[in-house]
Amino acid sequence: MSNDQYSVAVPFYDLWHEDGHVPEIRELLPPLLKGVRGSVLEIGAGTGLITRVIAQATPGEIFAVEPALAMRSVLLSRLAEDPALRERVTVLACGAHDVDLDEPAEAIVMISVLYGFGRAERERLWPVLARQLEPGGLLLFNHRERALPGPGEMELMGSYRVGRHTYQVRGQVLEVSGETSRYRHLYQVTQDGVLISEDEVLGETHRPSTARLRAELEAAGFVPDDAPDGMQAWRRAG
């Protein structure tokens, strides 16, 4: 069993997320970034799937925050393949609470990262992000209010063929308390039905209500802006 979930998840990450939220974000995010000409801070850049979307939608610098070495390694390899991206993207090897840009950004993007922060961590995070934004700057993140699933059996969440191998992600909710659920993931590689490798990860996810998020963001000096279903847009009050 491993709790180093990022290094375990990296071989599965792009396969699974291309089959998940990433295609929707490619549609929803660019219109929200229309008109952003200055720098963009991306919180939780992962392997760079959304970094590419930001780069295609905006002309300025991008500061990609990614604390996990395994994720950051793929992100930097992705940048190395694209000279234009390599010129524009600075990778910051720190956590979201430790970001300190030299100049405030015009926009902050945080995709499928919110659920990694519990209430106390979020309440510390919003003022940090407000300090990284210029007055009137834009904060964008994805969020849908959904009931947390109850504890259940292990289920197949994704299966992907790569050459002769099949990469599978299985998941199980172990416990739910308030906005927090504890889960178990299995990352498996098989060939012809024979298990080659398996890693188990235990973790937590947090799903705050929209009302809870509104209270936290307004307390940190943000005001709501228009956004389509599935996204939240807020601006730092001037």
Automatic annotation (TrEMBL):
<feature type="domain" description="Methyltransferase">
    <location>
        <begin position="40"/>
        <end position="137"/>
    </location>
</feature>
<keyword id="KW-0808">Transferase</keyword>
<dbReference type="Pfam" id="PF13649">
    <property type="entry name" value="Methyltransf_25"/>
</dbReference>
<protein>
    <submittedName>
        <fullName>Class I SAM-dependent methyltransferase</fullName>
    </submittedName>
</protein>
<dbReference type="InterPro" id="IPR029063">
    <property type="entry name" value="SAM-dependent_MTases_sf"/>
</dbReference>
<keyword id="KW-0489">Methyltransferase</keyword>
<dbReference type="GO" id="GO:0008168">
    <property type="term" value="F:methyltransferase activity"/>
</dbReference>
<dbReference type="InterPro" id="IPR041698">
    <property type="entry name" value="Methyltransf_25"/>
</dbReference>
<dbReference type="GO" id="GO:0032259">
    <property type="term" value="P:methylation"/>
</dbReference>
